[in-house]
Amino acid sequence: MKIVTICGAGIGSSGILKVNAERVLKRLDILAEVTAADITTVAWAAEDAQVILTSAEFVEAIGKTYADVIVIDNFFDTDELTRKLRATLG
Amino acid sequence: MPLPPLPESAIVLGAHADDWRAAVRLAGSALAASGAAKPAYADEMIRMIEEHGPYVVIAPGLALAHARPGPAVLADGLAVVTLAEPVSFGHPHNDPVSVVIGLAIERSDVHLASVAELANVFNDSSAIPALRDAKSIDEVIAIFGNTRNLGEQQ
User: Fold this and answer.
1) Chain B residues with CB-CB distance to A23 below 8 A
2) Which chain A residues in 4-43 lie under 8 Å from chain B, judged by CB atoms?
3) Residues ≥6 apart with Cβ < 8 Å to B28
């Protein structure tokens, strides 16, 4: 499975989201490749992604996608990430 | 990979900011004071938020101000600004903001891992309130672990 985290610059929040998503996925025993990207490269980065993790501000800019878009409010709350990833991935 | 350096010169406690732009500008000044960025980096951080919205408010009370790597970045670095009175960034969940982290990164491909180390600091949900209430630079350094020492070794 491929998961992409999206933020404005691709260096700050998406990196934090990537590392925390990897932690949660490991705990859930889900095998996935998580990539951090910025909003300008989302079309390319998320082309074959199953899940996009981001904040509410980018949902519109991400636009049409086959991936499930999950909005995260608190990037440091691994419980929120766990709950939302589990709800999406079943 | 260690966190980007957080020298004492990049820590400002109990500052006053009229609005989010002023708060981000303080973080820019702190990054300039430590030599991590040129003064113009503050404008770039503000532009990111004007362009994309208040997404940098990534947790309750905390803004991670940053822009892309570029000529305004001189070295990897962190800055910490705590506000005497919190300001609103217009975020639907995480306002008001009392702690602004400034982040300057030279190359995203190399340094993503060090940025991700911030998760090790802030996944502890007591870190943001502890920073907000910090009365001394030593308290801030302690919350970030041994960042200062690691930074000086580089």
Assistant:
1) 119
2) 7-13, 15-16, 18-20, 23, 36, 38-39
3) B37, B39, B41, B42, B43, B45, B65, B102
Interchain contact A71–B (C-beta under 8 A): no
Taking contacts as CB-CB distances below 8 angstroms, the residues of chain B near A24 are none
**CA–CA distance, B100 with B81 (Å, rounded to integer):** 5
What are the domain boundaries of chain B? 8-145
Q: What is the pLDDT of residues B68-115, one digit of tens each?
A: 899 999 999 999 999 999 999 999 999 999 999 999 998 877 667 778
Domain B8-145's class? alpha beta
Q: What value of ipTM does the predicted structure carry?
A: 0.87
pLDDT, one tens digit per residue, over A26-84 is: 999 999 999 988 888 887 777 889 999 999 989 988 888 889 999 999 999 999 999 99
Which of A10, A12, A78 comes nearest B123 by C-beta? A78
| A52 Cβ under 8 Å from any chain B Cβ | no
Mention the CATH class of domain A2-81. alpha beta
Percentages helix, strand, coil for chain B, rounded to the nearest 5?
40, 20, 40
| DSSP per residue, A1-24 | -EEEEEESSSSSHHHHHHHHHHHH
Residues of A in contact with B103 (CB under 8 A): 11-12
